[in-house]
Design a protein that fits this description.
This protein is of the alpha+beta class. It is built from two helices and 14 strands; from the N terminus they run ααββββββββββββββ. About 20% of the residues are buried.
Length: about 300
């Protein structure tokens, strides 16, 4: 029974095969169907491989791009740092040029020679023995004891220890500083005394009836011969009258910020004129309609 069914199935299958084969010979439809089906199968078999390939190429391209971008970013960052450094240098040079320009704008003082110097060190504050600065000029440059030191804003101090190529200058804020001054407006004379760094200056020996006003500028009087007359020194900040003193209690502030000075001018004194006996000639100054003779 089973063999009979198998024989019938084989006969039917052979009949269908021969029929399809004959039909395909005439029409070719089965060949086209097989080709189309085969292409689809090939497509779906190869598509995952192509996707993996495309993603790998894209990843490599992005990686190479990012590596190049990082290198370019590193180069630009380095160039940016160099440009910032150059800008800082140019700003410092510009500020230095501005300071030198202000020094050059100081009008020449008759019979006095000026020379620029750089501040190379500060010695200020409560722990310092003296309020001083160190400048890069010494005896080789003609610096002598008591050589005046000024800035475009006013008097800084005087040299107290000249060295061979560097010198120490005492600031006008020091306790040992004494400068003869007068009011720029009312011409009242006094002695400007330092009281230490951060403390106001004291203008002593100004008469009780002297017309001194707050805000008035004190300038060098030139009476002691240490500084040329007319150099701005300080600004009066307070004026008080006392019932038990013959002098005013006057306080002032320096016109120069001692902590910020970087360049200064040195004033070299004129050479004294000697007489026939070899002594120094006396000079006469006219002060407040009275004649004062000071020996050199």
């Amino acid at each position: 029974m089973k063999l009979k069914r198998a024989a019938i199935a084989v006969i039917i299958g052979l009949f269908i095969y021969l029929s399809l084969y004959s039909w395909n010979l005439r029409s070719g439809q089965l060949d086209r169907l097989a080709g189309f089906t085969g292409l689809e199968i090939v497509k779906w078999v190869l598509w995952p491989c192509e996707w993996v390939h495309d993603q790998s190429v894209l990843f490599l391209d992005k990686y190479v791009y990012l590596v190049g971008l990082k290198q370019l970013n590193d180069q630009l960052s380095s160039q940016n740092d160099l440009m910032r450094l150059e800008i800082m240098k140019l700003r410092e040079k510009s500020a230095e040029a501005d300071r030198y320009r202000l020094l050059l704008e100081i009008k020449p003082i008759r019979d006095w020679k000026t020379e620029g110097a750089r501040v190379i060190a500060h010695r200020m504050g409560p722990t310092a023995a003296l309020d001083t600065i160190i400048i890069n000029k010494g005896v080789l440059s003609g610096v002598d004891f008591d050589t005046p030191v000024i800035s475009p804003l006013g008097v800084v101090g005087r040299v107290v220890e000249p060295g061979i190529s560097a010198s120490k200058a005492l600031l006008l804020t020091d306790l040992n500083s004494r400068i003869s001054v007068r009011g720029q407006l009312h011409r009242s004379t006094g002695l400007l005394v330092g009281k230490g760094d951060g403390e106001p200056l004291s203008a002593k020996y100004m008469k009780l009836n002297a017309p001194v006003t707050k805000g008035e500028i004190l300038v060098t009087s030139g009476l002691a011969g240490l500084f040329p007359p007319g150099l701005p020194v300080a600004r009066i900040t307070s004026v008080e009258r006392s019932d038990i003193s013959l002098f005013l209690d006057v306080e002032a502030e320096p016109l120069v910020d001692m902590e910020k000075i970087e360049e200064v001018l040195l004033l070299h004194r004129p050479i004294p004129v000697t007489n026939s006996t070899g002594g120094a000639a006396n000079s006469t100054l006219q002060v407040d309609n009275s004649t004062v003779t000071e020996g050199r």
